[in-house]
Amino acid sequence: MLIHFYNAGVEDAEVFNPFLPILPLESPGIAVNIELVSAVLRSLAPKKLKNRNWSQALGELAFSKREFPRAMKFYMETLISNSHYFLKTFEKDDRLIHRMIKCSSELGNHVTGTILCQLIDGCDYSGAFRSLEERNNNNDAMDGLYPYLWDVTVLEYAVTMHAKKGDYSRKKKALDTINNLEINTNNNDEILLEAASYRRNIFLRKMAAFFL
C-alpha cells in the first residue's frame, strides 16, 4: 500500500512492488507526503537480514528519486541475496538489469552498462552498442573492462568502432579479448556458458565491492 501511495504521489513514478504486481498509478484522491512514505518504507526494511524483495523495493524507491548510487547498492543486494555472492546462478530479472543499465548510464559508467547489457535475455545489442559509443562523462575504466565482455558480437563492434576512430590501443584490447580461446564461437555451448558465467560473476563481485 505504501508503494501504491508513492506511485500515486510522484509524477511518472513507477516503483516496482516485488511483493505484488505493479500497482496502478492513479491518485487515490489524497495528498501524499513522499518523504514520509519513503522514510516509512526504509524503516520497515530488515536491518540485518538481507531480503531480496525489500532490497529491490528500496532500489526502486531510490531509482524513482534519481538516487542512482543508492539504487545500485540495493540492486546489488538484490542479486547477492539469492546467489550466495554470485557463487550460484541468480534469478534472471531483465527489468532489474535494465534499471542497473540506466543507473550506470546516469553515473557515466558506460562500459559497465555495456557489460550489463549482456545479462539481458538474448543480449541487448542496441543498448550495448550505444553504451560503447558514449564518450561523454565516462567515469569507469572503459576499455580496461573489456576482459569482462564475453559476447563476441559486442566485442567485434568495439573493434570496428575503435578502428574507425583511430583508437588503436583500445582496438587491440578488444581484439585481445576476442582471441581468448574460451569465448571462441566454435566452442560448444557448455564451454561458452561457463566462460560467460565466470566473467559475469567476477565482474558483479567487483561491482558489489564498489557499491556496497
TrEMBL record:
<feature type="domain" description="INTS8 TPR repeats">
    <location>
        <begin position="14"/>
        <end position="209"/>
    </location>
</feature>
<comment type="similarity">
    <text>Belongs to the Integrator subunit 8 family.</text>
</comment>
<dbReference type="GO" id="GO:0005694">
    <property type="term" value="C:chromosome"/>
</dbReference>
<dbReference type="GO" id="GO:0034472">
    <property type="term" value="P:snRNA 3'-end processing"/>
</dbReference>
<dbReference type="InterPro" id="IPR038751">
    <property type="entry name" value="INTS8"/>
</dbReference>
<protein>
    <submittedName>
        <fullName>INTS8</fullName>
    </submittedName>
</protein>
<dbReference type="InterPro" id="IPR057980">
    <property type="entry name" value="TPR_INTS8"/>
</dbReference>
<keyword id="KW-0539">Nucleus</keyword>
<keyword id="KW-0158">Chromosome</keyword>
<dbReference type="GO" id="GO:0032039">
    <property type="term" value="C:integrator complex"/>
</dbReference>
<dbReference type="Pfam" id="PF25756">
    <property type="entry name" value="TPR_INTS8"/>
</dbReference>
